[in-house]
Design a protein that fits this description.
289 residues, alpha/beta, Rossmann fold, 2 domains, 6-stranded mixed beta sheet, two-stranded parallel sheet, 40% helix
């Protein structure tokens, strides 16, 4: 009798243990299914995002530049609307921000692509626009600052150097007006703008940095250059002091930069600037002597 009771309880414990295991296996299966569907959903949303970028910038053609060392730079190129072989057209380099880095040659279209493909901009400001993509593991500049100026590095970063190598090749096109090469950049791309005009002050006809930081001790090199600086007063990513210091350094050097601070705007000051028609009018009125 005692053995039977013992066997009864022992069998019940085994069944309870098996039930516990089955329960946990079921839970794990449910979790796994949720994870799989989550990954599929994220991938699907990512694909939709990429397609939206392409749809908003259909005329930007994807290209690849490879230098003699085998180093690669992906970029998108927009050509003038209904170009005339007897004319020369301005050339714009647009450096995107940190979140647009990668290797798909698409992310960098997020802001510059739709802006330059606006029907009015295509019609009124016919030009070439080149938007290179900075690799995810690199940056346009070696380091940045939240609120101070940053000393110019001895050498440019690989993506910035490749961008200039590409420019030197593309500007040989007889349709490109070498006296009207414009430079624009946002966030880390704006820091890239400050870097490039310090290294190649005679290359560009105008520069527009949106929320970046540079080296104010080098402004003497490009004090002749028309520059329009933009920043948001509520910027928590790059403190407005960065642009303020560069503006002051330029003025102290005898330059006359344009400086716009949007009072109720955060980091993405370029979104508001792109809505101001004066920006394109000003930019395309500039030319090197």
């Amino acid at each position: 009798m005692i053995r039977k009771i013992h066997g009864y309880y022992n069998g019940g414990a085994m069944r309870s243990k098996r039930g516990f295991v089955v329960c946990w296996i079921s839970i794990l299966i449910v979790i796994l299914v949720i994870i799989i569907f989550g990954i599929i959903s994220i991938k699907d949303e990512s694909n939709k995002k990429i397609q939206r970028l392409l749809d908003a910038s259909p005329d930007f053609k994807g290209r690849e530049f490879r230098n003699k060392k085998g180093q690669v730079l992906y970029y998108r190129l927009l050509e003038p609307l209904q170009s005339n072989l007897k004319r020369k057209y301005p050339f714009v380099i647009f450096l995107s921000g940190t979140s647009e880095r990668g290797s798909n040659n698409i992310n960098q279209l997020k802001y510059g692509g739709p802006f330059f493909e606006k029907p009015d901009n295509r019609r009124l400001y016919r030009c070439f626009v080149m938007i290179p993509q900075c690799p995810a593991s690199q940056n346009w500049v070696p380091r940045e600052s939240y609120s101070q100026m940053v000393p110019l590095a001895p050498e440019p970063t690989v993506p910035l150097r490749l961008t200039m190598e590409l420019l030197f090749r593309l500007k040989q096109d007889p349709l490109i007006d070498s006296k009207r090469i414009y430079l624009m950049g946002l966030s880390s791309g704006a820091s890239g703008v400050w870097d490039l005009i310090a290294r190649y002050p005679q290359m560009f006809a105008a520069a527009v940095p949106f929320a970046g930081c540079g080296d104010g001790t080098k402004v003497i090199r490009f004090k002749h250059l028309p520059i329009w600086i933009f920043h948001g007063a509520l910027d928590l990513a790059v403190n407005p002091n960065c642009s303020k210091l560069m503006d002051k350094a330029l003025i102290d050097a005898g330059a006359k930069p344009r400086y716009t601070v949007y009072k109720m705007t955060g980091h993405s000051c370029w979104v508001k600037a792109f809505k101001d028609p004066e920006l394109m009018r000003w930019l395309f009125s500039q030319s090197r002597l």
